[in-house]
Recover the amino acids of this structure.
């Protein structure tokens, strides 16, 4: 850091609340887009795998391979196709959620007791009704557990999008922080990013408990 | 097609092979930084995980800290390390040092939590049997607990290695070189073939890391347990491991 400058200058934070709020909002928006799109695509893939179980291996294999490519490299590989755009960032972010989400949704749906499915069939539920009204609610806690992991992971990865000019809290960490040797901005970005991850995690857990009150009742 | 030609041109350009910004140099920076960081992370995390796994002392605290540590983004660790290394070591505080500190911090949690979980899952009856046979605590750890928990421990090492190799790409942000330096320079100069070529190398290195540590993980199943698994599959009598 610049010699003699303190690690934390509260004055800078107060003076730059607008900038900080703006970057936080960008971060939240990018995360929400990635997780919502990731859940939608993973759900489609999970249903596909359900009717074509042979595809499970390839789907998990491909998403696992993408998962092991570092974020900066994946952004970089997409730049020739989609440029330095939000689309590039989102394609990569969504791809990273797939491994966690597909595996989780498939496990969750597999975990529905067969006698429950039998009962629903006996009561005359169509396959779609069965999925929507019986299997999904039962699978919900496990699915939400996957969404929580995907969300926390995505919040961390979004910081890297600042390197391809996408802003977010990474802008505070890199552009205003590391590149200017300015500790206050770095710490602000890191603390907000961790806080965002923890709050999202707790909030999703609360939503899941709200949606599936019976899961809690049974645990007692 | 024209673009791929430019990527090939970058790979074959003399400047990519001799001078002070070459592919071998950046690759060496990437691999050595990752190897040193993984070794240090394992050196800290394995004893810690073995201790809390064997004694069950302080396990909640350590696992809770490890989980909070996981919420810190990888870029965040680099950012946190930099002010401290710069304040302590001035110009030397740039480059390898903050990068290594950040990578070690990232590499510790998966190994600690997996080592703890692996030991924790070992059947208590086996420990009692070992004690009954007169094994000392350290013998128990070395000859019973670790062999049984090894695949889980190695899964932690693998996950740590993959994270470290991936994040070493970002070390370029704090002047740590690595293959990520090509990507950042390329972004700065809008040199897309260089960005793409370097990203290919990074992706290859990461996948290679994942595969080789995955192989080690599969090899880590103790021979005794392998035989036992086959027997169990055969006879379906899954009563006890001994």
């Amino acid at each position: 850091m610049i010699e003699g400058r303190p690690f934390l200058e509260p004055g800078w934070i107060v003076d730059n609340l607008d900038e900080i709020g703006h970057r936080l909002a960008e971060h939240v928006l990018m995360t929400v887009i990635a997780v919502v799109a990731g859940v939608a695509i993973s759900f489609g893939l999970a249903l596909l795998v359900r009717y074509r179980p042979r595809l499970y291996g390839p789907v998990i294999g491909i998403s696992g391979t993408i998962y092991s490519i570092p974020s900066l490299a994946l952004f970089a590989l997409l730049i020739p196709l989609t440029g330095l755009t939000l689309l590039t960032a989102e394609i990569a972010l969504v791809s990273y959620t797939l491994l966690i989400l597909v595996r989780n949704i498939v496990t969750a749906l597999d975990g529905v007791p067969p006698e429950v499915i039998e009962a629903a069939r006996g009561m005359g539920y169509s396959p779609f009704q069965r999925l929507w009204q019986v299997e999904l609610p039962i699978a919900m806690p496990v699915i939400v557990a996957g969404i929580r992991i995907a969300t926390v992971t995505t919040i961390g990865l979004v910081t890297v999008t600042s390197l391809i000019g996408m802003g977010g809290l990474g802008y505070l960490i890199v552009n205003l922080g590391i590149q200017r040797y300015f500790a206050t901005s770095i710490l602000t970005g890191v603390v907000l990013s961790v806080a965002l991850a923890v709050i999202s995690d707790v909030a999703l857990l609360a939503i899941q408990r709200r949606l599936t009150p019976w899961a809690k009742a049974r645990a007692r | 097609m024209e673009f791929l030609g430019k990527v090939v041109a970058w790979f074959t350009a003399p400047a990519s092979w001799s001078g002070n910004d070459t592919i071998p140099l950046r690759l060496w920076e990437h691999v050595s930084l990752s190897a040193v960081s993984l070794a240090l992370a394992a050196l800290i995390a394995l004893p810690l995980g073995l201790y809390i796994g064997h004694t069950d002392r302080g396990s909640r605290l350590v696992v809770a800290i490890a989980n909070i540590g996981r919420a810190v983004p990888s870029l965040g660790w680099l950012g946190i390390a930099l002010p401290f290394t710069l304040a302590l070591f001035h110009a030397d505080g740039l480059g390898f040092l903050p990068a290594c500190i950040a990578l070690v911090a990232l590499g510790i949690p998966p190994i600690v939590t997996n080592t703890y979980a692996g030991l924790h899952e070992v059947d208590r009856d086996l420990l009692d049997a070992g004690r009954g046979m007169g094994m000392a605590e350290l013998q128990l750890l070395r000859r019973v607990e670790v062999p049984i928990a090894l695949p889980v421990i190695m899964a932690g090492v693998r996950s740590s290695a993959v994270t470290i190799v991936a994040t070493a790409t970002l070390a370029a942000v704090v002047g740590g070189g690595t293959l990520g330096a090509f990507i950042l320079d390329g972004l700065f100069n809008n040199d897309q073939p260089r960005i793409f070529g370097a990203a290919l190398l990074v992706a290859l290195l990461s996948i290679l890391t994942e595969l080789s540590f995955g192989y080690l993980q599969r090899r880590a199943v103790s021979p005794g347990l392998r035989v036992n698994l086959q027997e169990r599959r055969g006879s379906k009598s899954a009563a006890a491991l001994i």
About this structure: Chain B touches chain A through 41 residues (CB under 8 Å). DSSP finds ten helices and no strands in chain B. Confidence is low (pLDDT under 50) at residues 233-242 of chain B.
